Amino acid sequence: MAQALLLNVFAMRAYITRAETLHPIGSNQIISHRSSSRSHDSFSFYIDEASPVGPEQPETVQNFVSVFGTVAKKLMRKWLATQTMNFTGQLGAGIRYFDLRISTKPRDPDNELYFAHGLFSAKVNEGLEEINAFLTDHHKEVVFLDFNHFYGMQKYHHEKLVQMLKDIYGNKMCPAIFAQEVSLKYLWEKDYQVLVFYHSPVALEVPFLWPGQMMPAPWANTTDPEKLIQFLQASITERRKKGSFFISQVVLTPKASTVVKGVASGLRETITERALPAMMQWVRTQKPGESGINIVTADFVELGDFISTVIKLNYVFDEGEANT
């Protein structure tokens, strides 16, 4: 694993250097025409087994946990955790797009906001501060924060999250414009380092929040790698009509029967590792561009050569652009 991470870091550093100094096309090209990697449920490297079950979970799950307690939560964690690296580790490995789900915690007197999916993760402000520390040390790095699910949140909670973003990122946040106008060169000239996508009507009221529909992420909802690949290919064909950023979710979703069969093994061993070769083969055949691949999401992003493979797709694209 350490060797794979090291290779991913070298690949990202090489790409940044090339885009910034050696190959001006890389920085002039609009970002929605580039290929970049995104972690699925980016915050799930930490799951608090002592926390209550998330408010979005069905009654069957709530009852399961109420009967079996900590044992049930330990089993849930094996299927809910889709990442092993924290935010700093993911950034160091080359991840720049983060999949974020926010929730209030039942009967929390402090009204804190937490990352959550099934069970609760870290406090939101802690994760955002961790990402900001990386940006402060790397002035030409840009991250995309995709807030796509909100659980148990009222108007007050959204206002609190918006203020939190202001306090932490301030002028680093790029106001919403057309996706076709956003290039690294544009962001560098304006000293912008953060684009925040917000899948809620609240986005229409705040200039630095990009509407969620500008970051569509079609979901295959299948455990079958072949069906997933067919879905991904069809989705890219439809992409050209949207004029936005676009996410290809190279992730398999377990059914209840899958979880039962591999209850003690977990998501990584039962599904992700077994399907990885087929999914990576599909990624290697893709090309970025207006009607091509853009943002690629995966579970356990350190597996194989996922991050470096996605980044390297831009090399071929740049060379093709330079020769036209």
Automatic annotation (TrEMBL):
<dbReference type="GO" id="GO:0045202">
    <property type="term" value="C:synapse"/>
</dbReference>
<dbReference type="Pfam" id="PF00388">
    <property type="entry name" value="PI-PLC-X"/>
</dbReference>
<keyword id="KW-0807">Transducer</keyword>
<keyword id="KW-0442">Lipid degradation</keyword>
<keyword id="KW-0443">Lipid metabolism</keyword>
<dbReference type="GO" id="GO:0007165">
    <property type="term" value="P:signal transduction"/>
</dbReference>
<dbReference type="InterPro" id="IPR000909">
    <property type="entry name" value="PLipase_C_PInositol-sp_X_dom"/>
</dbReference>
<dbReference type="InterPro" id="IPR042158">
    <property type="entry name" value="PLCXD1/2/3"/>
</dbReference>
<dbReference type="GO" id="GO:0016042">
    <property type="term" value="P:lipid catabolic process"/>
</dbReference>
<protein>
    <recommendedName>
        <fullName>Phosphatidylinositol-specific phospholipase C X domain-containing protein</fullName>
    </recommendedName>
</protein>
<dbReference type="InterPro" id="IPR017946">
    <property type="entry name" value="PLC-like_Pdiesterase_TIM-brl"/>
</dbReference>
<feature type="domain" description="Phosphatidylinositol-specific phospholipase C X">
    <location>
        <begin position="81"/>
        <end position="179"/>
    </location>
</feature>
<dbReference type="InterPro" id="IPR051057">
    <property type="entry name" value="PI-PLC_domain"/>
</dbReference>
<dbReference type="GO" id="GO:0008081">
    <property type="term" value="F:phosphoric diester hydrolase activity"/>
</dbReference>
<keyword id="KW-0378">Hydrolase</keyword>
